[in-house]
Amino acid sequence: MITPFLDGRIDLRSYHRLLEHYLAAGVAGIFPLGTTGESPTLDEDEMEAIIDRTLSVTAGRVPVFVGVGGNATSKVVKTLARLQHYAFDGIVSVCPYYNRPGQDGLREHFTRIAEATDRPILIYNIPYRTSVNLTTDTLLELARLPNIVGVKDSSGSLAQSLDLLRRRPDGFAVMTGEDASLYTMLAHGGDGGILASSHVATELFVGVYAHMAANDHRAARAVWSPRDARAPSLQGSQSDAHQVRPVEVGADQLARMPPALDPDLPGAGGRARSRPAAIDSRARRGKERHAIGRASRSAVRRRRTQTRIICLR
Fold this sequence. Notes:
This protein is α/β, with parallel strands linked by helices and 313 residues long. The chain has 2 domains: 5-249, TIM Barrel (Alpha-Beta Barrel), CATH 3.20.20; 276-313. It contains 12 helices and 8 strands. It has helices spanning 12-24, 44-58, 73-82, 103-116, 127-130, 136-142, 158-167, 182-187, 202-213, 217-224, 230-235, 282-312; strands spanning 5-6, 9-10, 65-67, 90-94, 121-125, 148-153, 173-176, 192-193. The strands form 2 sheets. The chain has a 6-stranded parallel β-sheet. The model is unreliable at 236-244, 261-292 and 295-313 (pLDDT under 50).
């Protein structure tokens, strides 16, 4: 789920409408407080307001897995304790980012989280965001823990994903997080997807899954094929998916993070980067380059000054 905002505050009214919209479209579960929902920008009260509203609206109709992750193991454990009184079904926990632990560190991190809760845990592996890759060997070791029940697999490597599908134990769920790989992963036995693009093409993804679950690959391919280029455009290198704007359900403001999406994409709420107009005259091009050079040097001096001020504070 994205987290809509209005005047800088969580817009729970729009969030309620979004939940009802996606439930009516046939999603099989709800995942609030992921990075798509801008969890790093939310304070504790806002997080709890989102959880409370999610549970009250879903009312047991679908499972709710809440994003509870981070790169400080003790903080994740404390967050789990703080949220203990909420009756959500499980958590999705991302691999630690920035500090780049090795496989032993990743194993210890998720083992301690699993020991701190009896809720089911989906591990979220997305190395192109976190700079660490949870290998299949390490993941299969963690799968021995009774409450580590699956993975949101955004490894970025189809070979790694298929290897995991071949080697996983019975009952261990592999949910792709790669929007463009949903059909492929389902065809190889994957269990579903947790997908940013499904915010604006919900019926497409639900329909593909329904056909694959019925073992009708031809029908699934017919649904998927005309739009299979759209998913990577919404999830790709600029994929701050919290910027996706489902305008039809009335969400007003969707981002605290800086916008990154191309505003020409369907449903995008980001702002465009301005593009300089073409300059035909060589002389004018020279003057433009000179002016840009002066401006760039001035900007660098200002940034250096600002940096010094910030350090002194």
